[in-house]
Amino acid sequence: MQKLPRITIVTGDGKGKTSTAMGRAVLAAWSGERVMVVQFLKGTGYTGELRAERNWRGDLKIKQFGAGCFQSEAIAAGLTECSRCGNCFRENRRPENRFAVRAFACAPAAAASEEWDLMVLDEIRHPINKGLLELGQVTGWVESVAGKVRLILTGRNMPQELLEIADEATECMSMKHPITRGIFGRRGSEY
């Protein structure tokens, strides 16, 4: 039997990093593995993956650490769309909210529990880039835990230090996307 990669990175400036990681998470859960997804600086409450999580009976768990949207229930119900007010992004970047620190604390605790076969660290690059997490701390932890649990890390411009220790890396690149024509996130497609 072939050995699965222990550390996978999905990076790039194009769309599809979270979707790729979630696709792998769903496949792993469908195959009987237990999957924990830790979403850094995300707290919308209306994304499709959160609404689908309840169908996995504990095999797929998603934890978000970030500012939520005051319109999340209406967006989830399809009654309105994100107004792109930017409040969630501004709140997520404020160090005093400690969203990234709490998310990163969740990851080692989940790995230490030995309950999970696969962990997705979604958008972990963003808090590193914003100085909310130290690259050395993340790299050290990833190296130390990779023998116990498989990891998928996502985010734009993944640091070379993480790419070097990865077993697999994919770069998402947009060739054509509706956002370039002013069509933003769509329910059922981007969220």
Task: Give structural notes.
This protein has one domain (7-181): Rossmann fold, CATH 3.40.50.300. It has 8 helices and 6 strands; from the N terminus they run E-H-E-H-E-H-H-H-E-H-H-E-H-E. The protein has helices at residues 17-30, 48-53, 72-76, 87-92, 99-112, 125-129, 135-145, 160-165, and strands at 7-11, 35-40, 60-65, 118-122, 150-154, 168-171.
Short description:
The protein is α/β, with parallel strands linked by helices and 191 residues long.
CATH architectural designation: 3-Layer(aba) Sandwich
- The CATH topology: Rossmann fold
Q: What's the CATH C level?
A: Alpha Beta
Task: Report the count of strand segments.
Answer: 6
Strand content: 15-25%
State the helical fraction.
Answer: 25-40%
Rg calculated over all Cα atoms: 16 Å
**H and E order:** EHEHEHHHEHHEHE
By CATH, the superfamily comes out as: P-loop containing nucleotide triphosphate hydrolases
The main sheet comes to:
6 strands, parallel
